[in-house]
Amino acid sequence: MEVNELYSLQKIEHIARGDQAFLRKMINLFLEQAPSSVKDIRQAYEKKDFAAMAAQAHRLKSALDTMAITSLQQDIRALERMDHEEAGTAEAGVLINKLETVIDQVVAQVRTI
């Protein structure tokens, strides 16, 4: 996956309509909240609190969409929809691992802009 494919600021830039302070605020909000949300998803999964895992996935979904992190759009929706039986499977763990990896990469890249 190439750097320019991980995310896009185009949607946020469109919403900001040239307001650089607003743009920076939205980016900083993502940088603060996305890693925390991913951590909460991991902790809920490990505690087998699948309702909390789904709720955290739901909260993170809009940020992923706004940042156009397309590689995670289906995965976050899958985590959000998983019932208790599915959430306890290895598939959920694989999706969370991917979520952690991609968010870490995006955060590192966004911090450089």
Describe this entry's structure for a reader.
- The chain is an all-alpha fold and 113 residues long.
- It has a single domain (3-8, 19-110), classed as Up-down Bundle (Four Helix Bundle (Hemerythrin (Met), subunit A)), CATH 1.20.120.
- 81% of the residues lie in helices and 0% in strands.
- The chain is built from seven helices and no strands.
- It has helices spanning 3-6, 10-16, 20-46, 50-66, 70-81, 84-87, 90-110.
- Helix 3 (20-46) runs antiparallel to helix 4 (50-66), helix 3 runs antiparallel to helix 7 and helix 5 runs antiparallel to helix 7.
- The longest helix has 27 residues, at 20-46.
- It is elongated and about 45 Å long.
- The two termini are 19 Å apart.
- The relative contact order is 0.17.
- The mean pLDDT is 92.
Number of continuous helical runs: 7
Number of domains: 1
Provide the structure class: mainly alpha
Query: Briefly, what CATH class?
Result: Mainly Alpha
Q: Poorly predicted ranges (pLDDT <50, ≥5 residues)? A: none
Distance between the termini: 19 Å
Large-scale geometry: elongated
Per CATH, what is the topology? Answer: Four Helix Bundle (Hemerythrin (Met), subunit A)
Helical content (DSSP H or I, runs of 4+): over 70%
Main beta-sheet annotation: none
InterPro entries: HPT_dom_sf, Sig_transdc_His_kin_Hpt_dom
Keywords: Phosphoprotein
Organism: Chitinophaga agrisoli
Protein name: Hpt domain-containing protein
